Amino acid sequence: MDVKINPEDSVNITHISSFYDNVARTLGFDNDAVRYDCTKIDVSRNIQNNIFSAWEKMGASDLEIGMVWCNSGPKTDDKLAEDTVRLFHGFFVNENEDPLPFDAVPQKPRATERAYIEGENTRVLKDQLKELGCKWDRDKQQWYHTDPEKANEAQKLVNGASTPERGAADNSVNRAVKEASRDR
After folding, report:
1. What are phi and psi of 42, to 5 degrees?
2. What is the dihedral angle through the alpha carbons of 35, 12, 5, 81, rounded to the nearest 10 degrees?
3. Terminus of the chain with fewer CB atoms < 10 Å: N or C?
4. 155 Cβ partners below 8 Å, 6+ apart?
5. Which of 4, 17, 102 lies closest to 51, judged by CA?
6. pLDDT tens digit sequence for 5-36
């Protein structure tokens, strides 16, 4: 499992275990509840460089840095994207030294608040709303998104479609409204 970490999590660390604690926090683990198997993690080259630089600033010699990295450091994988760690089964272990399976790794919390998209002509824009990641709420009969930025983008799309200067006067919804008003 590849995990992107905050670049600051590999800068100014005093010990390799503090880096592992940062990785655990990124995944939502309580640092006091887990231990780490350093043979089950790879890091990108820039993470290794950040850690080495921090230790050099603390006065560690190249020999000391090399010994710590060989004995309790991860492997460096030049193919990993910057600020990425690759975790293998068994990196996280519980107090009994039993490996925690990947399904025990908590997922980042999902936003639960829904931002609903307002507008009459959303049916015509259904495919575009889906592309933005919007979902349909059957109970409310309305589109929504849990990411406020995406919801705002979707709302702008809907608002723009109902603005005549954007060409929405030619869409099927507006034509149907015009025809209905003529029939009266």
Report:
1. -115, 150
2. -110
3. C
4. 117, 118, 119
5. 17
6. 887 877 777 788 888 888 888 888 777 778 88
- Residues of 142-156 as b/e, b for ≥16 C-beta within 10 angstroms? ebbbeeeeebebbbe
- How many whole angstroms separate alpha carbon 58 and alpha carbon 3? 27
Q: Any idea which residue has 């990425």 for tokens?
A: 84
> Residue 145 has which token pair?
């998104």
**Contact between 16 and 43 (Cβ < 8 Å):** no
For residue 110, what are the contacts with CB-CB under 8 A and spacing of at least 6? 146
Tokens in use for 46? 């820039």
Structure confidence by residue, pLDDT tens digits, 109-124? 444 688 899 988 788 8
Alpha helices in 45-171 (DSSP H): 45-57, 62-72, 126-131, 148-161
Full-model pTM:
0.52
Nearest to 80, CA basis, from 26, 49, 42: 42
What is the per-residue pLDDT across 85-106, written as a single tens digit (0 to 9) for each? 998 888 888 766 677 766 655 5
